[in-house]
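Why does residue order matter? Because the sequence determines the fold. Keep that principle in mind as you read this record.
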Amino acid sequence: MATGRLEGKVALITGSDSGIGQATAIEFAKEGADVVVNYLHDADGAEKTRAAVAAEGRKAIVVQADVTDEDQVASLFDQAVDAFGSLDILMNNAGVDASGKEVAELSTEVWDHAIRTNVYGPFFCCRRFIQLRLDAGGEGKIINVSSVHADNPNPGGADYDCSKGAIRMLTRTLALELAPHKINVNSLAPGMVLTPFNQPAIDDPELLEEQVQSIPFKRAAEPTEIAKLALFLASSDADYVTGASYVMDGGLMINLGQGA
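Structure:
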């Protein structure tokens, strides 16, 4: 049941055309927030998010921007402020998955793409958001989407694993820097979630069943489940929470060492 926890707030969610970002935009709207919907390629998905936010009685704008490009990030924030006057919540959700290439075969171009998307993008967005909040006198919420792979490496995942580890440390560093200004900075570290990142498993029930066997709950998360945790971190319920990384993985991380 909605309780208006984000009433009067404005949230910018990168990569909110699908998956966790889309689900979070809807959850935020249910609790009273207006939303800046960002996308790179999927205009139809972004429009679906906007329509879902509107269906909850909240306002939304859609802005195409590549978070790897500093100028496009600046334009994204300018359009957000022009539309709503301010931003209270930033969720850095846009990202790319692991390439599947082991380091010996990993091209500089592929490595750079992962780092620019998964690290530079949040850095650019955090920097601009912080400047806006400081100009407004402080306070605000930053939520960075990391991964269990910030701690749990996978062969063929160096580009992704390293980028998510960097996000965890960016989160913790910012939490220290921004605590005097009452700006909370936390990260989400999901395990397997039924988003486009896992489309092959979504499309193939046998593959999905195989992939969830290491998860104690024997299932992947729904995007809405991650979104509800993001909602907590965006709300005043989490005013005393900062520098934390919330693992939400159905028990995966504590199960990996079993049988050794």
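Residues 10-248 form a domain with the Rossmann fold fold (CATH 3.40.50.720).
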